[in-house]
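Fig. S4 source data, part A: sequence.
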Amino acid sequence: MYETFIAFRNSITGFLYRNILKKIFFQRDPEEVHDHMGDAGEWLGKHFFTRKITSWLFGYHHPSLEQNVLGIHFRNPIGLSAGFDKNAVLTDILPSVGFGFAELGSISGEPCAGNPKPRLWRLPKSKSLAVYYGLKNDGCEVISRRLRGKKFSIPFGISIAKTNSPDTCELQAGVKDYVKAFQHFLTIGDYITINISCPNAYGGEPFTDSKKLESLLTAIDAIAYSKPIFLKLAVDLDRSQIDTLLETVSHHRIHGFICTNLTKKRENPKILDANVPEKGGLSGKVVGDLATELIRYVYRKTQGKYIIIGSGGVFSALDAYAKIKAGASLIQMITGMVFEGPQVVSEINQGLVKLLRKDGFCNIREAIGTDSR
Protein backbone atom coordinates (compact mmCIF):
# COMPACT_ATOMS: atom_id res chain seq x y z
CA MET A 1 0.00 0.00 0.00
CA TYR A 2 2.79 2.41 0.95
CA GLU A 3 4.71 1.75 -2.29
CA THR A 4 1.55 2.18 -4.35
CA PHE A 5 0.78 5.50 -2.67
CA ILE A 6 4.33 6.78 -3.26
CA ALA A 7 4.23 5.79 -6.92
CA PHE A 8 0.82 7.46 -7.42
CA ARG A 9 1.91 10.60 -5.57
CA ASN A 10 5.11 10.85 -7.63
CA SER A 11 3.24 10.39 -10.91
CA ILE A 12 0.89 13.26 -10.05
CA THR A 13 3.57 15.67 -8.82
CA GLY A 14 5.86 14.78 -11.73
CA PHE A 15 3.06 15.37 -14.25
CA LEU A 16 2.22 18.75 -12.72
CA TYR A 17 5.87 19.81 -12.69
CA ARG A 18 6.76 18.75 -16.21
CA ASN A 19 3.53 20.00 -17.83
CA ILE A 20 2.87 23.21 -15.89
CA LEU A 21 5.61 24.49 -13.58
CA LYS A 22 8.53 23.56 -15.80
CA LYS A 23 6.99 25.35 -18.78
CA ILE A 24 6.59 28.48 -16.67
CA PHE A 25 10.09 28.24 -15.17
CA PHE A 26 11.77 27.62 -18.53
CA GLN A 27 10.35 30.87 -19.91
CA ARG A 28 12.29 32.84 -17.29
CA ASP A 29 15.97 33.47 -16.65
CA PRO A 30 17.42 30.31 -15.04
CA GLU A 31 19.38 32.13 -12.35
CA GLU A 32 16.30 34.14 -11.41
CA VAL A 33 14.30 30.91 -11.07
CA HIS A 34 17.07 29.32 -9.03
CA ASP A 35 17.14 32.29 -6.64
CA HIS A 36 13.36 32.26 -6.22
CA MET A 37 13.36 28.51 -5.54
CA GLY A 38 16.09 29.04 -2.96
CA ASP A 39 14.06 31.76 -1.24
CA ALA A 40 10.99 29.52 -1.23
CA GLY A 41 12.96 26.59 0.17
CA GLU A 42 14.45 28.76 2.90
CA TRP A 43 10.97 29.92 3.92
CA LEU A 44 9.53 26.40 3.86
CA GLY A 45 12.32 25.19 6.12
CA LYS A 46 11.55 27.71 8.83
CA HIS A 47 8.18 26.24 9.79
CA PHE A 48 7.33 22.83 11.23
CA PHE A 49 4.07 22.58 9.28
CA THR A 50 5.61 23.42 5.89
CA ARG A 51 8.44 20.96 6.49
CA LYS A 52 5.90 18.22 7.23
CA ILE A 53 3.84 19.04 4.14
CA THR A 54 6.99 18.97 2.01
CA SER A 55 7.97 15.62 3.48
CA TRP A 56 4.51 14.23 2.77
CA LEU A 57 4.78 15.40 -0.84
CA PHE A 58 8.33 14.17 -1.52
CA GLY A 59 9.60 11.85 1.21
CA TYR A 60 10.31 8.13 0.83
CA HIS A 61 12.03 5.56 3.01
CA HIS A 62 13.04 1.94 2.60
CA PRO A 63 15.46 -0.01 4.83
CA SER A 64 17.30 -1.55 1.86
CA LEU A 65 18.64 1.91 1.00
CA GLU A 66 20.20 2.55 4.41
CA GLN A 67 23.94 2.21 4.87
CA ASN A 68 26.81 3.36 7.06
CA VAL A 69 29.64 4.98 5.14
CA LEU A 70 32.79 6.08 6.97
CA GLY A 71 30.88 6.05 10.24
CA ILE A 72 28.05 8.20 8.86
CA HIS A 73 24.49 6.85 8.59
CA PHE A 74 22.69 7.55 5.32
CA ARG A 75 18.95 6.83 5.06
CA ASN A 76 19.27 6.66 1.29
CA PRO A 77 22.10 7.17 -1.22
CA ILE A 78 20.70 10.18 -3.12
CA GLY A 79 22.19 13.55 -2.18
CA LEU A 80 22.16 17.13 -3.41
CA SER A 81 25.37 18.19 -5.14
CA ALA A 82 27.38 21.22 -4.14
CA GLY A 83 26.50 24.19 -6.34
CA PHE A 84 22.80 24.40 -5.50
CA ASP A 85 22.81 25.59 -1.89
CA LYS A 86 25.86 27.82 -2.24
CA ASN A 87 25.32 29.73 1.00
CA ALA A 88 23.91 26.92 3.15
CA VAL A 89 20.45 28.41 3.69
CA LEU A 90 18.42 25.29 2.80
CA THR A 91 19.58 22.86 5.49
CA ASP A 92 16.18 22.85 7.21
CA ILE A 93 14.14 21.91 4.13
CA LEU A 94 16.42 19.53 2.20
CA PRO A 95 15.69 16.51 4.45
CA SER A 96 11.97 16.96 3.74
CA VAL A 97 12.59 16.84 -0.03
CA GLY A 98 13.78 13.26 0.46
CA PHE A 99 17.54 13.58 0.14
CA GLY A 100 19.68 11.14 2.09
CA PHE A 101 22.40 13.77 2.39
CA ALA A 102 23.45 17.09 0.87
CA GLU A 103 26.63 18.99 0.13
CA LEU A 104 26.81 22.72 0.79
CA GLY A 105 28.83 25.30 -1.10
CA SER A 106 31.34 25.38 -2.61
CA ILE A 107 32.55 27.74 0.09
CA SER A 108 35.75 29.73 -0.28
CA GLY A 109 38.09 31.45 2.14
CA GLU A 110 36.80 34.89 1.16
CA PRO A 111 33.38 36.11 -0.04
CA CYS A 112 32.97 36.01 -3.80
CA ALA A 113 30.35 37.66 -6.03
CA GLY A 114 31.05 35.16 -8.79
CA ASN A 115 31.47 35.77 -12.50
CA PRO A 116 29.49 38.44 -14.39
CA LYS A 117 25.96 37.59 -15.52
CA PRO A 118 24.63 35.79 -17.48
CA ARG A 119 26.18 32.73 -15.88
CA LEU A 120 23.55 30.00 -16.11
CA TRP A 121 21.93 28.64 -19.27
CA ARG A 122 19.58 25.76 -20.05
CA LEU A 123 20.30 23.30 -22.85
CA PRO A 124 16.83 21.72 -23.09
CA LYS A 125 17.51 19.29 -25.95
CA SER A 126 20.64 18.03 -24.20
CA LYS A 127 18.97 17.99 -20.77
CA SER A 128 21.93 19.90 -19.44
CA LEU A 129 22.93 23.22 -17.95
CA ALA A 130 25.84 25.49 -18.82
CA VAL A 131 27.16 26.85 -15.52
CA TYR A 132 29.48 29.85 -15.13
CA TYR A 133 28.74 31.00 -11.58
CA GLY A 134 32.40 31.22 -10.58
CA LEU A 135 32.01 30.06 -6.96
CA LYS A 136 29.52 32.70 -5.86
CA ASN A 137 29.25 32.47 -2.05
CA ASP A 138 29.31 34.50 1.16
CA GLY A 139 32.69 33.13 2.30
CA CYS A 140 33.66 30.73 5.06
CA GLU A 141 33.37 33.18 7.96
CA VAL A 142 29.76 34.21 7.28
CA ILE A 143 28.55 30.72 6.34
CA SER A 144 30.23 28.93 9.26
CA ARG A 145 28.68 31.47 11.62
CA ARG A 146 25.27 30.72 10.07
CA LEU A 147 25.66 26.97 10.60
CA ARG A 148 27.43 26.86 13.95
CA GLY A 149 25.33 25.08 16.55
CA LYS A 150 22.69 23.81 14.12
CA LYS A 151 21.51 20.22 14.36
CA PHE A 152 20.96 18.36 11.10
CA SER A 153 18.61 15.43 10.48
CA ILE A 154 20.61 14.15 7.49
CA PRO A 155 24.37 14.18 6.85
CA PHE A 156 25.73 17.40 5.36
CA GLY A 157 29.04 17.75 3.58
CA ILE A 158 30.92 21.01 3.21
CA SER A 159 32.52 21.66 -0.17
CA ILE A 160 35.44 24.09 0.00
CA ALA A 161 37.16 25.75 -2.94
CA LYS A 162 39.77 28.41 -3.68
CA THR A 163 38.37 31.94 -3.79
CA ASN A 164 37.76 33.07 -7.36
CA SER A 165 40.21 35.96 -7.33
CA PRO A 166 43.62 36.99 -8.73
CA ASP A 167 44.77 37.21 -5.10
CA THR A 168 44.71 33.40 -4.74
CA CYS A 169 46.54 32.50 -7.94
CA GLU A 170 49.99 32.17 -6.37
CA LEU A 171 50.46 28.67 -4.96
CA GLN A 172 50.87 29.48 -1.29
CA ALA A 173 48.08 32.07 -1.38
CA GLY A 174 45.78 29.42 -2.85
CA VAL A 175 46.78 26.85 -0.24
CA LYS A 176 46.24 29.39 2.53
CA ASP A 177 42.76 30.16 1.17
CA TYR A 178 41.76 26.48 1.19
CA VAL A 179 43.17 26.03 4.70
CA LYS A 180 41.21 28.99 5.99
CA ALA A 181 37.93 27.57 4.67
CA PHE A 182 38.82 24.09 5.93
CA GLN A 183 39.51 25.30 9.46
CA HIS A 184 36.18 27.12 9.70
CA PHE A 185 34.27 23.84 9.21
CA LEU A 186 36.20 21.44 11.41
CA THR A 187 33.22 21.09 13.76
CA ILE A 188 30.42 21.71 11.25
CA GLY A 189 28.95 19.06 8.98
CA ASP A 190 29.77 15.38 8.55
CA TYR A 191 32.49 15.48 5.91
CA ILE A 192 34.51 17.99 3.89
CA THR A 193 35.04 17.95 0.13
CA ILE A 194 38.08 19.69 -1.33
CA ASN A 195 36.90 20.96 -4.70
CA ILE A 196 39.93 21.25 -6.97
CA SER A 197 37.95 21.04 -10.19
CA CYS A 198 35.76 24.13 -10.58
CA PRO A 199 36.08 25.02 -14.29
CA ASN A 200 34.92 28.62 -13.87
CA ALA A 201 37.38 30.23 -11.46
CA TYR A 202 40.19 32.70 -12.00
CA GLY A 203 43.44 30.90 -12.75
CA GLY A 204 41.83 27.62 -13.84
CA GLU A 205 42.30 24.38 -11.90
CA PRO A 206 45.89 24.60 -10.57
CA PHE A 207 45.51 21.88 -7.94
CA THR A 208 44.83 19.21 -10.55
CA ASP A 209 48.62 19.39 -10.93
CA SER A 210 50.07 16.70 -8.67
CA LYS A 211 52.89 18.82 -7.23
CA LYS A 212 50.51 21.63 -6.30
CA LEU A 213 48.01 19.12 -4.91
CA GLU A 214 50.82 17.68 -2.80
CA SER A 215 51.38 21.12 -1.25
CA LEU A 216 47.67 21.54 -0.55
CA LEU A 217 47.16 18.11 1.00
CA THR A 218 50.32 18.45 3.10
CA ALA A 219 48.90 21.67 4.55
CA ILE A 220 45.56 19.97 5.24
CA ASP A 221 47.31 17.01 6.89
CA ALA A 222 48.95 19.40 9.33
CA ILE A 223 45.52 20.34 10.75
CA ALA A 224 44.08 18.21 13.55
CA TYR A 225 40.73 16.90 12.30
CA SER A 226 38.66 13.75 12.49
CA LYS A 227 35.97 13.89 9.80
CA PRO A 228 36.23 12.20 6.37
CA ILE A 229 37.72 14.15 3.48
CA PHE A 230 36.75 13.80 -0.19
CA LEU A 231 38.48 15.17 -3.28
CA LYS A 232 36.28 16.36 -6.17
CA LEU A 233 37.78 15.33 -9.50
CA ALA A 234 37.52 16.95 -12.92
CA VAL A 235 35.88 14.78 -15.56
CA ASP A 236 38.04 16.18 -18.39
CA LEU A 237 41.37 14.90 -17.01
CA ASP A 238 42.96 12.12 -19.04
CA ARG A 239 43.71 8.80 -17.40
CA SER A 240 47.42 9.50 -16.93
CA GLN A 241 46.53 12.67 -15.01
CA ILE A 242 44.07 10.70 -12.89
CA ASP A 243 46.75 8.08 -12.19
CA THR A 244 49.17 10.77 -11.02
CA LEU A 245 46.56 12.34 -8.75
CA LEU A 246 45.65 8.96 -7.27
CA GLU A 247 49.31 8.32 -6.51
CA THR A 248 49.61 11.70 -4.80
CA VAL A 249 46.44 11.16 -2.78
CA SER A 250 47.61 7.74 -1.60
CA HIS A 251 50.15 9.46 0.67
CA HIS A 252 47.57 11.64 2.41
CA ARG A 253 44.47 11.34 4.58
CA ILE A 254 41.82 11.29 1.85
CA HIS A 255 38.86 8.95 2.25
CA GLY A 256 37.20 9.21 -1.13
CA PHE A 257 36.42 11.01 -4.36
CA ILE A 258 33.52 12.80 -5.96
CA CYS A 259 33.30 11.81 -9.61
CA THR A 260 32.77 14.31 -11.12
CA ASN A 261 32.56 18.02 -11.71
CA LEU A 262 31.36 19.74 -14.90
CA THR A 263 32.80 19.12 -18.36
CA LYS A 264 34.25 21.99 -20.37
CA LYS A 265 34.56 20.05 -23.62
CA ARG A 266 32.12 20.95 -26.39
CA GLU A 267 32.94 18.09 -28.79
CA ASN A 268 30.45 15.76 -27.16
CA PRO A 269 27.83 13.76 -29.11
CA LYS A 270 25.34 14.22 -26.27
CA ILE A 271 25.25 17.98 -26.90
CA LEU A 272 22.11 18.33 -29.02
CA ASP A 273 21.45 22.07 -28.74
CA ALA A 274 22.64 24.33 -31.55
CA ASN A 275 23.64 27.31 -29.43
CA VAL A 276 25.91 26.36 -26.56
CA PRO A 277 27.58 29.16 -24.58
CA GLU A 278 31.35 29.24 -24.91
CA LYS A 279 31.73 30.00 -21.22
CA GLY A 280 31.12 27.62 -18.36
CA GLY A 281 31.03 23.92 -17.64
CA LEU A 282 28.25 21.57 -18.67
CA SER A 283 26.19 19.45 -16.29
CA GLY A 284 23.40 16.91 -16.80
CA LYS A 285 23.13 14.26 -19.51
CA VAL A 286 26.17 15.64 -21.32
CA VAL A 287 28.43 14.55 -18.46
CA GLY A 288 26.55 11.43 -17.30
CA ASP A 289 28.44 8.67 -19.14
CA LEU A 290 31.79 10.42 -18.64
CA ALA A 291 31.22 10.47 -14.89
CA THR A 292 30.20 6.80 -14.79
CA GLU A 293 33.31 5.77 -16.70
CA LEU A 294 35.55 7.74 -14.33
CA ILE A 295 33.82 6.11 -11.34
CA ARG A 296 34.53 2.69 -12.85
CA TYR A 297 38.16 3.61 -13.59
CA VAL A 298 38.89 4.96 -10.10
CA TYR A 299 37.14 2.02 -8.42
CA ARG A 300 39.14 -0.51 -10.41
CA LYS A 301 42.42 1.40 -10.17
CA THR A 302 42.18 1.67 -6.39
CA GLN A 303 40.55 -1.76 -5.96
CA GLY A 304 37.63 -0.24 -4.04
CA LYS A 305 39.90 1.31 -1.40
CA TYR A 306 38.16 4.69 -1.51
CA ILE A 307 34.54 5.71 -1.13
CA ILE A 308 33.22 7.20 -4.36
CA ILE A 309 30.34 9.65 -4.62
CA GLY A 310 28.95 9.62 -8.16
CA SER A 311 27.72 12.90 -9.64
CA GLY A 312 26.67 13.86 -13.14
CA GLY A 313 23.68 13.11 -15.36
CA VAL A 314 21.45 11.39 -12.80
CA PHE A 315 17.83 11.66 -13.95
CA SER A 316 16.47 8.23 -13.05
CA ALA A 317 16.98 5.15 -10.90
CA LEU A 318 18.75 3.48 -13.82
CA ASP A 319 21.22 6.37 -14.03
CA ALA A 320 21.93 6.16 -10.31
CA TYR A 321 22.15 2.36 -10.35
CA ALA A 322 24.69 2.39 -13.18
CA LYS A 323 26.96 4.59 -11.09
CA ILE A 324 26.46 2.45 -7.98
CA LYS A 325 27.30 -0.74 -9.89
CA ALA A 326 30.33 1.04 -11.38
CA GLY A 327 31.64 1.69 -7.85
CA ALA A 328 29.80 4.64 -6.27
CA SER A 329 28.52 4.24 -2.70
CA LEU A 330 26.53 7.47 -2.86
CA ILE A 331 25.00 9.63 -5.59
CA GLN A 332 24.60 13.38 -6.02
CA MET A 333 22.36 15.33 -8.37
CA ILE A 334 21.06 18.79 -9.31
CA THR A 335 20.26 19.01 -13.02
CA GLY A 336 17.97 15.98 -13.03
CA MET A 337 15.79 17.75 -10.48
CA VAL A 338 15.66 20.90 -12.65
CA PHE A 339 14.39 18.95 -15.66
CA GLU A 340 12.25 16.30 -13.95
CA GLY A 341 11.01 17.98 -10.75
CA PRO A 342 11.73 17.59 -7.03
CA GLN A 343 9.78 14.31 -6.83
CA VAL A 344 12.55 12.70 -8.87
CA VAL A 345 14.51 12.11 -5.64
CA SER A 346 11.73 9.85 -4.38
CA GLU A 347 11.30 8.28 -7.84
CA ILE A 348 14.98 7.35 -7.94
CA ASN A 349 14.99 5.90 -4.44
CA GLN A 350 11.86 3.84 -5.05
CA GLY A 351 13.26 2.71 -8.38
CA LEU A 352 16.51 1.64 -6.74
CA VAL A 353 14.59 -0.61 -4.36
CA LYS A 354 13.00 -2.37 -7.35
CA LEU A 355 16.34 -2.73 -9.14
CA LEU A 356 17.98 -4.17 -6.02
CA ARG A 357 15.21 -6.75 -5.67
CA LYS A 358 15.46 -7.66 -9.35
CA ASP A 359 19.18 -8.38 -8.93
CA GLY A 360 18.67 -10.30 -5.69
CA PHE A 361 20.27 -7.73 -3.38
CA CYS A 362 18.93 -7.04 0.10
CA ASN A 363 20.81 -3.78 0.63
CA ILE A 364 22.36 -1.08 -1.53
CA ARG A 365 25.83 -1.96 -0.20
CA GLU A 366 25.74 -5.28 -2.03
CA ALA A 367 25.40 -3.62 -5.44
CA ILE A 368 28.38 -1.26 -5.12
CA GLY A 369 31.02 -1.99 -7.75
CA THR A 370 29.43 -5.19 -9.05
CA ASP A 371 30.02 -4.16 -12.68
CA SER A 372 33.66 -3.21 -12.02
CA ARG A 373 35.07 -6.27 -10.26
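Fig. S4 source data, part B ends here. The radius of gyration is 19 Å.
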